[in-house]
Design a protein that fits this description.
The protein is about 85% helix and about 0% strand. It is mostly helical. The protein has one domain. The longest helix has 25 residues. The two termini are about 45 Å apart.
Length: about 70
């Protein structure tokens, strides 16, 4: 049984399409991590909320942090 599973995994890893899908999945995950880090930074949030007062900006950022921590 384990030999059959190993053989299937081996043939899966030999195919080019599987390798391309793995690379695309890794690239998209790194991009997603980078975007979430960028969006969650306070400087980015404050620059995008310029129309609000400083107090409203702080309240909005606190609400976002509270929803992220839950």
């Amino acid at each position: 049984m384990t030999r059959l599973i190993r053989a299937e995994i081996y043939t899966l890893f030999k195919t080019r399409a599987f390798k391309v899908l793995c690379i695309l999945a890794l690239l998209s995950s790194f991009m997603l991590i980078g975007l979430t880090k960028l969006i969650s930074s306070e400087d980015f949030l404050k620059s995008s909320l310029k129309g609000m007062t400083e107090e409203q900006q702080e309240q909005f950022i606190e609400q976002l942090q509270n929803t992220n921590s839950e």
